[in-house]
Specification:
2 helices; single chain
Length: 163
Amino acid sequence: MNSDSDLQIAGDILEVPHLLQPPREHPATVSEFVGLARSIAADRSQWEHLVQYDATSRWYRRLRTGPGYEVWLLSWVPGQGSGLHDHGRSSGVLTVLEGVLTERTERDTRALGAGSQRVFAPGYIHEVVNDSLEPAVSLHVYYPGLTEMPMHSAQCAPAVVTA
């Protein structure tokens, strides 16, 4: 039996710079977009001072763009919702920053508290609503950037969340 470890055989990869992948300036994979959303969520100084609440409609602001993606900040006062929609050809990451939002799909209804994330592919149909009595804030990453948001009229799952 050979007692040499893989590290002894191959050497330390960090000592072979030409084998290392260069860090990407912008995300390119689903996990990197999830990581981008988490890093923005964790750094309140990037978004907290920008949040506004509008009693007549959902408030939103584009935080950043990169090659092929956009990051949006949204606020939701109690009772506000998105309506049933999809995101056209865009995939996305929804992260709840503060409060609780309810996501309804044809199959399910789930409460999303602060820190919750949902990842979706093109054509994913859902509705997001603030069913709580407190305001909520969310972060949305779309890739490619959002160019359409078709609305749908079909019913989603019931509003009751079962435990």
